[in-house]
Amino acid sequence: MKNSVAFGQYCEGKSFLHKMDPRWKLVLAVFYIVVIFLCKNIFTFALVALSAIGLVALSEINPKIIIRSLKPLVMIICVTAIINIFWLKGETLLFSFGPISVYLEGIINAFLIVVRVILLVSVTTLMLTYTTTPIALTDGLEQLLAPLAKIKLPVHEFSMMMTIALRFIPTLLEETEKIMNAQRARGADFSTGSLKQRAKALVPILIPLFISAFRRAEELAIAMECRCYTGGEGRTRMNVLHSSYRDLVGLIVTVLLCLAVVLINKFAPGYRISM
């Protein structure tokens, strides 16, 4: 397994998660997100975190790749944690400096929210991008939304649009890295200076990145037209999706996890998250 896989890129493999039906992976990913938001105390977060580690083991993907996928969210995670530390009030005051007061409950709350964000990003990327090809994801999403086509909603076009967006995430990230390296070779500095100076330094990156994105979009549109693409009506599929015992096992485990989280929230003591 390569360690240089970009965020949102498919990792080829033959693991338990790779062989699951993409329709069930979409359903279970949504179910798992609900479970994460049901977590209210440290015990439930610990249980869900252990289940996430189990998913990583089942996927046979290098954990370093999962950790690297969190890099673009470091700033958001830090800002979220800082806001919760200084905003939330509690009973145990740690220290106070003028109008700023830090409580133990605020630190615990910030930690649990950070864990929630990490779990959300890790699980969704693991199940929907790292272990599912864009084509399989499109087929699964389209079949799940098929009933909406009866009321004239463009289900196929919507599924195609979502898949193309996911597919272009690693491509744009690689393009950004290439542009930044080219600018550094010309003497650009993105790591020093004030916030305003750093923002100005990003302008030479954004302009060529937008041009490259529009060029790729145009090339993709021309390629689809050359192949006589007209939409999903009347189209057949090379690979027909089939459910298996893996999907049933995943559903049972996820339901049991949800029940365990609900019971722990109800009966287990401990600090409860306020968001």
Please tell me about this protein's structure.
It is a single chain. By secondary structure, the protein is mainly alpha-helical. Helices cover 65% and strands 3% of the residues. It has a domain at 22-156 and 238-267. The protein has 10 helices and 2 strands. Strands 1-2 form a two-stranded antiparallel sheet. The longest helix is centred in the middle third of the chain and has 31 residues, at 155-185. It is flat. Mean pLDDT is 81; it is low at 1-5.
Short description:
This protein has helices at about 20-40, 40-60, 65-70, 75-85, 105-130, 135-145, 155-185, 195-200, 205-225, 245-265; strands at about 95, 100-105. By secondary structure, the protein is mainly α.
Distance between the termini: 37 Å
Biggest sheet descriptor: 2 strands, antiparallel
**How much is the radius of gyration in Å?**
22 Å
What's the count of strands? Answer: 2
**Run of helices and strands:** HHHHEEHHHHHH
The amount of helix comes to 55-70%
Strand content: under 5%
Query: Which class do the helix and strand fractions yield?
Result: mainly alpha
In spatial order, strands of the major sheet run 1-2
Shape: flat
Instruction: Write down the overall mean pLDDT.
Output: 81
Number of helices: 10
Give the uncertain stretches in residue-range form.
Answer: 1-5
